[in-house]
Amino acid sequence: MVATRSRTSMGSSGHGSLASGDGTDKGQVFHKGVAISMWQNSGDDDSNWTNFIKSNFPFKALPFGFNRFSGKHSVLQSCPDTWNRYEEDVELAVKAGCNALRLSIEWARIEPRKGQIDMDAVARYHAMLDAMEAAGVEPNATLHHFTHPQWFEDLGGFEKAENIQHFVAWSLKAVELFGSRITFWATFNEPTCAMFLGWITGMHPPGKMLACITAGQVVMHKLQAHCQAYEAIKRTPLGKNLQVGLVHHHITFLATGPRLLRGLAAYAADWMNYWWGYELVHTWMLTGKFTWKVPVLGQWLEWQHPGGKLPCDWFGVNYYSRSVVTWYMK
């Protein structure tokens, strides 16, 4: 579910208005909706995730690997297919009482080759926005929901600081194409989740395990990319009218078990909390300071946003659950 509060107009339908009986705050709207990742829902041909699914990555089939969580079929074989059935999905959202829909604008669909814009994909997204507008549904767009073009991955992706410029350029292109129709933008969905599953456990692309130093570089570069994209978007003619934020997952790990073994569980839970970014992102949000620690080696990276508290118009929280960890990691 997606819930946001804004002062933007929802049109004449007045869906979700927070206006009181005396007419105050008539401009406030409570957006209640649903959310999708276009890749998770429809797949594609040119993203890092599609390449990962098609690869012979050795850890995918292990008991703790990707196949353990993906089931017998991948999204490339069977999926709800919002890309082609978006009108049905918008209709279902409205029937569920929603006045908002969060979706990802897939970089790999819009720019499958570096510098080449797929205008058919652009037209399809505009058709989706047409359907939402006709139904009185407010769009909320995510620029990076775990996926990016394979050409960006081949350049080193977010492992390399010099690639941040490509993400900023993508953000500006997306705003150029759709900014007149979308007010709410998220730069990234759950950057620490992608880092943990891609560089610590190896279950997501690029499938690296216990690459703890690189993992810290990846999440730092994504947070830096958020700041640079935010500032670049705000400098555009449409920027002052756009609300640019970041979406973070909320999950905590607690230790349990016999007293003598609880210390092992507590050690594991502390690192899980750290790697999943519970306090890491919250501290960065409030102070602009990013620090990255590595087991045994200690603090490895540090970066301070020059403006102090980072630029962000809204903060998205994906709440999942609380996890309890035993000494044998169950």
Summarize the structure in words.
It is built from twelve helices and nine strands. By secondary structure, the protein is α/β, with parallel strands linked by helices. A seven-stranded mixed sheet has the order 1-2-3-4-5-6-9. A two-stranded antiparallel sheet has the order 7-8.
Summed up, what is this model?
With 330 residues, the protein is α/β, with parallel strands linked by helices.
List the helices and strands and how they pair.
Elements lengths: L1 E5 L22 E7 L2 H5 L5 H7 L11 H5 L11 H14 L4 E5 L2 H4 L8 H17 L2 E5 L7 H5 L9 H15 L5 E6 L1 H10 L11 H23 L8 E13 L3 H17 L2 H10 L1 E6 L3 E7 L9 E12 L5
Parallel strand pairs: 2-3, 3-4, 4-5, 5-6, 6-9
Antiparallel strand pairs: 1-2, 7-8
Give me the Rg, rounded: 20 Å
Distance between the termini: 28 Å
The backbone outline, from C-alpha atoms, is globular
Helix and strand content put the structural class at: alpha/beta
Question: Could you name the ranges where pLDDT drops below 50 across 5 or more consecutive residues?
Answer: 7-26
Strand portion: 15-25%
Number of separate helices: 12
E-strand count: 9
Q: What string gives the helices and strands in order?
A: EEHHHHEHHEHHEHHEHHEEE
Described by strand count, sense and barrel closure, the largest sheet is: 7 strands, mixed
Q: Spatial order of the strands in the main sheet? A: 1-2-3-4-5-6-9
The overall pLDDT average reads 85
Fraction of residues in helix: 40-55%
